[in-house]
Write a structure and sequence with these properties.
Layout: E1 20-26, E2 29-36, H1 42-49, H2 53-59, E3 64-70, E4 74-79
Parallel strand pairs: 1-4
Antiparallel strand pairs: 1-2, 3-4
């Protein structure tokens, strides 16, 4: 019977995400998403973001002036 089954045990390691999805913005407009580790460095996130076609098109012919990266939240690219 279900009533006699043991209660599931809590496992804290199951709560930790190994990958997260970040939004990628170019000049404040959403251009795509990337999947990275929660503690990924800004250069890894930037490399994955510039591989997205919509981000490439938005940055085409422009120089990257600033990268705003909030780990676990968002990546914003500012271009001139």
């Amino acid at each position: 019977l279900v009533a006699l089954a043991p209660w599931p045990e809590f496992k804290e390691e199951m709560l930790i995400d190994s990958e997260i999805t970040l939004g990628v913005q170019v000049m404040g407009k959403m251009r795509g998403t990337i999947v990275v580790a929660p503690d990924a460095r800004d250069n890894v996130a930037l490399e994955k973001a510039t591989a997205i076609a919509s981000v490439k098109n938005a940055l085409e012919g422009k120089k990257l002036a600033r990268v705003i990266y909030k780990p676990g939240k968002i990546l914003n690219l500012i271009a001139k």
